């Protein structure tokens, strides 16, 4: 399975968070604080998934409820397509579909983007001894390893067109031939296909042949980007934080986020979706070792630059952005409005007023709690 790419590899910078101590600010802090428990997914997930999605896709928003339902219904199918941008969790959902299917064989996955050009068919179908120079022994392909189980080929669109055609033919006939062999081998696994765009859009832009798209069938699961399900970010962030001791082999990091850090995470951009969020949290965990909380100063500097208000944002995102700006501005409405480029009346309407008590306007940011 392809590892996460670190899109936030920046030097550590100094950053202080204003200490907002007024009653109004304290009340706002309490209202902002998310009571996030990573290991308690919703009833729909508990009903549908036994382990992988429970462990990895820990939150279900309304938009994801439909995705979960489709995965459940498509579990018996021989071929299912997962559409979604990189890092949206297609492999997690594919693994969950395998578990739901009840197939006893293994779950095997392959990323076409990681295979050297021209070697995809050998990886998929295997080869017999003497099939080509250097083939000193028989090699079982991944379809054979997934016998009786599920095979996921991610980034299917990166295969050569001839390779796509041969794989599609194998799926239709339910047989294939290892390289150099004259005998057909039955396909006994279900095959899941991952692509980074909608199939119809790929056909329209010439990235996929229309006959290939039609032969992939109509069992399609569209996985939305993290930007389309921002109400899940807090739960995912807390889940990733809980996994950091195992991911980093360091057990002395924080166990929770400050409300300011969590608010910033909820409005920050994530080009690679969950992969980016995971790497941001993992990096922050390492920087915050010895502290009880992961704070804004432990997040990448690129995330700490002022974000801009956009009228095209949905209301929930606007509210989160304004609340974050208020925290970063010490509760000062005018400064918060200037920070994100919006009129102060909008800040008052969506975020509420968080006045700075006299004498606190120039107060230096607090030290994260140990």
What structural keywords apply?
370 residues, alpha/beta, Helicase, Ruva Protein, domain 3, Rossmann fold, 2 domains, five-stranded parallel beta sheet, two-stranded antiparallel sheet, 11 strands, 42% helix, disordered N terminus, disordered C terminus
Question: What report would you give on this structure?
Answer:
With 370 residues, the protein is of the alpha/beta class. It has two domains: 135 residues, Helicase, Ruva Protein, domain 3 (Orthogonal Bundle); 180 residues, 3-Layer(aba) Sandwich (Rossmann fold), CATH 3.40.50. The chain is built from 17 helices and eleven strands. The strands form four sheets. It has a five-stranded parallel sheet with strand order 2-5-8-1-9. Strands 3-4 form a two-stranded antiparallel sheet. The longest helix is centred in the middle third of the chain and has 16 residues. The two termini are 36 Å apart.
Q: What is this entry, summarized?
A:
With 370 residues, this protein is an alpha/beta fold.
List the helices and strands and how they pair.
Blueprint: H1 23-32, H2 43-48, H3 52-56, H4 62-74, E1 79-83, H5 90-101, E2 107-111, H6 120-125, E3 126-127, E4 139-140, H7 142-145, E5 150-154, H8 161-173, E6 175-176, E7 185-186, E8 190-195, H9 199-204, H10 210-215, E9 220-222, H11 233-248, E10 256-257, H12 259-267, H13 274-287, E11 293-294, H14 301-304, H15 315-328, H16 333-340, H17 344-351
Parallel strand pairs: 1-8, 1-9, 2-5, 5-8, 10-11
Antiparallel strand pairs: 3-4, 6-7
């Amino acid at each position: 399975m392809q590892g996460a790419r670190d899109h936030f590899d920046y030097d550590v910078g100094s950053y202080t968070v204003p200490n907002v101590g007024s009653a109004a600010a304290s009340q706002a802090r309490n209202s902002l604080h998310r009571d996030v428990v990573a290991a308690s997914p919703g009833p729909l997930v508990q009903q549908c998934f036994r382990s992988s999605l429970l462990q990895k896709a820990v939150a279900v928003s309304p938009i994801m409820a439909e995705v979960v339902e489709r995965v459940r219904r498509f579990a018996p199918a021989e071929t299912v397509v997962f559409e979604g941008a990189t890092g949206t969790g297609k492999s997690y959902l594919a693994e969950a579909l395998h578990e739901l299917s009840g197939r006893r064989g293994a779950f095997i996955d392959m990323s076409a983007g990681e295979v050297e050009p021209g070697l995809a068919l050998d990886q998929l179908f295997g080869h017999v001894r003497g099939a080509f120079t250097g083939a000193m022994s028989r090699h079982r392909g991944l379809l054979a390893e997934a016998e009786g189980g599920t095979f996921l080929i991610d980034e299917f669109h990166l295969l050569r067109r001839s390779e796509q055609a041969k794989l599609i033919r194998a799926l239709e006939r339910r047989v294939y031939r290892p390289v150099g062999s004259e005998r057909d081998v039955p396909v006994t696994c279900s095959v899941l296909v991952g692509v980074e765009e909608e199939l119809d859009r790929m056909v329209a832009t010439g990235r996929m042949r229309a006959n290939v798209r039609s032969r992939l069938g109509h069992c399609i699961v569209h996985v939305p980007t993290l930007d389309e399900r921002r109400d899940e970010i807090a739960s995912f962030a807390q889940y990733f934080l809980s996994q950091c001791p195992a991911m980093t082999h360091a057990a002395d990091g924080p166990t929770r986020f400050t409300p300011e850090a969590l608010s910033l995470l909820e409005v920050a951009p994530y080009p690679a979706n969950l992969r980016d969020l995971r790497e941001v949290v993992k990096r922050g965990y390492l920087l915050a070792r010895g502290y009880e909380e992961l704070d804004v100063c432990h997040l990448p500097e690129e995330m700490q630059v002022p974000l801009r208000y956009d009228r095209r944002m949905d209301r929930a995102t606007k509210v989160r952005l304004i609340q974050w700006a208020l925290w970063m501005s010490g509760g000062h409405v005018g400064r918060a409005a200037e920070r994100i480029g919006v009129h102060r009346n909008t800040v008052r309407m969506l975020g509420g007023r968080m006045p700075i008590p006299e004498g606190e306007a120039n107060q230096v940011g607090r030290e994260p709690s140990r």
